[in-house]
Design goal:
The protein is an alpha/beta fold. Helix content is 35%, strand content 25%.
Length: 177
């Protein structure tokens, strides 16, 4: 038992070191092996059990940039009538804003990362995954520059049995451990 625990601790330390260096990681394996469960448990451990600093989403074929980063959405009044349109932040931008003003670690878990159309969802953010020190202009709010905070980490999960795994963009694959 001691050997098993020390091997597990060594593996967790290895994952943690890789995660600290790369800032994004993908857990892959066959369906039903606990990737999502492990991702949530690891994220809680990594953020020192600050569950409010962990968000989880699931990609699917209709998920897009407007859901993930930012998009134009209708303004709806109390009568449920459209009163114009506004730019609304997606989950990544919301979590990035929270991380920018807090020194704690934040983790975004993307379950089934390979099920979405990666280039359409991430857009110009693929660049920022590699160049965290730089800023870019986003599609809808190009008047301000955006940067991924150093304390925002991303965990992806994907099934190796899924045929769509072959469609994972190489540019994205090389940016994740």
């Amino acid at each position: 038992i001691e050997k098993l625990l020390s091997e597990s601790n060594a593996k967790i330390t290895e994952i943690e070191n890789e995660f600290n260096e790369q800032r994004q990681i993908i857990f892959e394996g066959p369906p039903g092996t606990g990737k999502t469960y492990f991702a949530k448990e690891f994220a809680n451990y990594f953020t020192e059990n600050k569950e409010e600093n962990v968000e989880i989403i699931q990609f699917h074929p209709s998920y897009n940039y407007e859901d993930f980063v930012e998009g134009i959405r209708p303004k709806i009044d109390k009568k449920r009538e459209v009163k114009g349109y506004e730019i609304k932040d997606g989950i990544l931008k919301i979590l990035a804003k929270r991380a920018r003003y807090d020194d704690s670690k934040f983790v975004l878990i993307i379950d089934e990362i390979n099920r979405g159309k990666i280039s359409r969802i991430f857009g110009e953010l693929i660049y920022l995954l590699e160049y965290r020190n730089e800023e870019i202009r986003l599609t809808y709010s190009s008047d301000k520059k955006f940067q991924l905070p150093k304390n925002l980490y991303i965990i992806g999960t994907m099934n190796t049995a899924d045929r769509s795994i072959a469609l994972m963009d190489f540019a994205l694959r090389r940016r994740f451990a």
